[in-house]
Amino acid sequence: xxxxxxxxxxxxxxxxxxxxxxxxxxxxxxxxxxxxxxxxxxxxxxxxxxxxxxxxxxxxxxxxxxxxxxxxxxxxxxxxxxxxxxxxxxxxxxxxxxxxxxxxxxxxxxxxxxxxxxxxxxxxxxxxxxxxxxxxxxxxxxxxxxxxxxxxxxxxxxxxxxxxxxxxxxxxxxxxxxxxxxxxxxxxxxxxxxxxxxxxxxxxxxxxxxxxxxxxxxxxxxxxxxxxxxxxxxxxxxxxxxxxxxxxxxxxxxxxxxxxxxxxxxxxxxxxxxxxxxxxxxxxxxxxxxxxxxxxxxxxxxxxxxxxxxxxxxxxxxxxxxxxxxxxxxxxxxxxxxxxxxxxxxxxxxxxxxxxxxxxxxxxxxxxxxxxxxxxxxxxxxxxxxxxxxxxxxxxxxxxxxxxxxxxxxxxxxxxxxxxxxxxxxxxxxxxxxxxxxxxxxxxxxxxxxxxxxxxxxx
Length: 459
Hints:
This protein is an alpha/beta fold. It has 2 domains: 2-165, Rossmann fold, CATH 3.40.50; 168-459, Rossmann fold. It has helices spanning 34-38, 53-62, 81-86, 89-102, 114-119, 123-132, 149-165, 190-203, 219-223, 240-250, 264-278, 282-309, 326-339, 355-365, 382-390, 408-413, 437-458; strands at 2-4, 21-23, 43-48, 107-112, 137-140, 173-180, 207-209, 228-233, 254-256, 319-324, 343-349, 377-378, 399-403, 418-420. A 5-stranded parallel beta sheet has the order 12-11-10-13-14, sandwiched between helices. The protein has a 4-stranded parallel beta sheet with strand order 7-6-8-9, sandwiched between helices. Strands 3-4-5 form a 3-stranded parallel beta sheet, sandwiched between helices.
C-alpha cells in the first residue's frame, strides 16, 4: 500500500522518510476526513471526487481498522473524463439537489477530492447558493494531495465552525467545555475513549461537548460551541489550531493537555488541572476522584497477584516499543513507563505531525516519568520503521510491541508479543472498548497481559 509523502522533513537526530512513496501507509488521504463527518450524529458527507474514492477511504479507515462499521451512506459525484475536461460544478449541483430530496440530516458537509481541486471547480459558489436558501450545508477543501486525514479533519472542523456555527458571540455557559481529542476512525478505540473522557469530565462537574461518536448529542453540540467556557485540547497537536481559532473567534480560553491520561495517577492529576483551570467545585471533584481511584486500585491490587506470582511461568515484558500516531503513542508510552514500570524502547510517531509541533512533542517524551525520558522518532514508512526497531539492542530485555497489523512480522522477528493499538488493526474487533482514563487503563492491562500469557503458552 503506497501513499505520497505529504510533508517530509526532519530535524537534528530524527529519522524521517525521504520524498517519494511510503510503504505500509498508516493513514488516509485528506478526503478520509469524511469519516469525521460520519462520526457526527446527524451529519452526512457529500463527496465531490472520482469514482470509488469515498468508499475506499471509509472502508480503509473503518473496515481494516478494528472492523468498526458505521453509517456509510455517502453521496458522491463520481467524476469521470467528461468532468475532468469540462468541469464538474454542474454535476455537484445536481448531486446536492438530489441528496436533499432523498436524505435527511442536520448538517451536510461537501468535501472535494483531487479532481475538482486540479480542474478548478468553483465548489464554494455551488454550496453558497444552497446556504442562502437556508440549507444546513458547508464545504471543506479536502483534495487528497493536500495532506492526510488528520489535516483534512482540521479543514472539516474549520468549515463547520465558520460556515455553520457562525460568528455570533454569545454569553458563556460556566462549566461547558468543547473537547478536541482523538481522530475518529483513525484510532480504532476512539468511540470508547471519547465516552470515557466525557464520563470523567462530567464526574468533576463539567458539561461536555464531546462532538463526535455515540457519546455526542450530535449537531446541537456543534451549535453550542460558542457558549463553552473554554476549549480543552486533549492530544499532542491535533485540535490546537481549532482551539486557537475559537479563542480568537469567540474569546474562549484554551487548555492544552498533550497527554491523554491512562491510569489513576495520570487521570487524577489531569482532572485536578482541569478543576483548577475551570474554577470548579473542588470538593465535588475530589469526591469523584476518590471513588474512581478506590475502584481502580482494587482491581490493580488483584492484578498484582498475577504480576508478582507469574514471573517464573510467563515471560513478562520489560521494555515497551510503541509505533502509532502521536496521541496514542505518547499516552500509551507514558502509562507503560510511569505506571507499569517498563523501560522505554523505540517510540515511533507515524502520522507526520506538522513541524511546528514536533519540539513540543519531543519535550513530552523527555519527561515520561521521574528521571526517565526518551527521544521519539518521526517516521511514516513502515519498512524504515522496522529497520529502526530491529537495529536496537534488546540484550537483557523482553520487549513488547504496541503497534498495528503491519508490526506482526516485526514482533515475531524480535521475539516480542504484539498489542494492536493503531491503524491498520485487522486482528481486533472493536466496539466500545476504551484504553484511556480510569476504566480504559484496566482494559489496556487486560489486553497487554492476556497477549503476553498467550504468547508464552504458544512458545
